[in-house]
User: Fold this.
Amino acid sequence: MKLHETSVEASAHHTKGTIMESMTKNEASVVDDAAFTVRRTIRIAAPIEKVWAAVTEPAHISRWFGRVTLDGAGAGAVGTMTFDEYGAIPLRVEALHEPRMVSYRWNNDDALGALPDAFDETRATTFTFTLEPTAEGTQLTVVETGFDLTSDPAANMASHAEGWTLELDKLVALLEVGLEPDA
Assistant:
């Protein structure tokens, strides 16, 4: 998958951002430098129940994202998301409103160069999946916030924008085509 960065300027808010190109029919991630956020909205030709399971159940998340383990279920559950060649990222479920919204906090500070041994509230970003049914399936929006708490906000927003483009493209491939992502 080839990614290309394009700088954009939003005239309504006079903010600059970055868009990462996607290989699916969906738009790529957008960075809002002023708000310290990364956002991506995609459409998936799958029912909301199937998409909900893919973003909330550890076994399903592990098929397209990182390997997730959680102690407990629902808001407050803690665990890790592990990526080969990167390591285990502390993770906590913040909120859960089935089947429309789930929010996680994690310590994924790419620019820091090291992962914490335990969850660190003062350095965590929050990513929230919002699901809406459509005539063709489901619209899924992810918004990650809190980059101002990280070691290098600009570098982390760029890295996570690329990450959300890659990871959510894998989710689309899995749910629409049944294509398992490479390990």
About this structure: Helices lie at 48-56, 58-64, 153-177. The radius of gyration is 16 Å. Residues 44 and 138 are 5 Å apart (CA to CA). The first strand starts at residue 5 and ends at 10.
